[in-house]
Amino acid sequence: MRLCPLLVFLSPAFIILGPGLATGQINGPGSPSLSLGNPGFAAPGANAPGRPSSAQRNQADLVFLMQAALGGHAEIQLAQLADQKSRDDAVRDFARRMIQDHSQANNALRSLIHSDNTTGEPQPDAESQQVYSGLNALTGPEFNIEYLRVQVQDHQRMALLAEYEIGSGADSEVQHFAADMLPKIFSHLSSARDLLQRVSAQNPKIAAVPPRTVTGMPAPQTPRSVSN
Predict the structure, then answer these.
(1) Mind giving me the DSSP string for the chain?
(2) Which of 106, 174, 176, 189 is the most buried (most CB within 10 A)?
(3) What's this model's pTM, rounded to 2 decimal places?
(4) Which domains are assigned to the chain?
(5) CA 6, CA 216: separation in Å to the nearest integer?
């Protein structure tokens, strides 16, 4: 199984955590300590009957579960920030949809993540914290554009990860969860792209500036103003 190219695309910070995936234990700076054994965030010994053990999950399953847990928590934090900072009603509506949808997904994810020693929500990794801090320093249309650029990038990553899990995972429950998530991921991606296009068109000078390094957003994926 060749997983490294996928990890490179998903997150530079995630590569640091990669070796721990082989054992089902991930301990890294700014990340939770997760192992796969009991139902997520439940007391030890609370395994559900018939639940697959960690040995039945391959690396694709472990990568998907960890990235989905970290990503879902980070998405809610960014959406809460957008709801507070943005003055664009459409952007705020999108952010509130992210809070609702990702909260529901996180609740479902807890039943799939098994942990012996995790007692709280996963905390964002260093890269997510950097993005949050960078966005928090922005205001107005610049914030809206950068937030939406992040949303496009993050949902592209999650779509790729979900598709990889569906095709390469070993745990049927995790695969079904990824398959159920995928249409909503694409819906979020489409909405973020449409909003980014509109906000960029309304603020062509700001949109013409290359993406900030905090987002890591490649320039070709970002709408640019069109000359009249």
Answers:
(1) ---HHHHHHH-HHHHHHGGGGGGT-B--TTS--B-SSSBTTS-TT-PPTTPPPGGG--HHHHHHHHHHHHHHHHHHHHHHHHHHH---HHHHHHHHHHHHHHHHHHHHHHTT-B-SS--SPPPP-HHHHHHHHHHHT--HHHHHHHHHHHHHHHHHHHHHHHHHHHHH-S-HHHHHHHHHHHHHHHHHHHHHHHHHHHHHHHSHHHHHSPPPTTTT--GGGS------
(2) 174
(3) 0.71
(4) 4-211 (1.20.1260.10)
(5) 16
Residues of the chain with pLDDT under 50: 1-53, 115-119, 218-228
Q: For residue range 22-67, what is the model confidence (pLDDT) as tens digits?
A: 333 333 333 333 333 322 322 223 333 344 445 588 999 999 998 9
Q: How many Å apart are CA 207 and CA 218, to the nearest integer?
A: 13
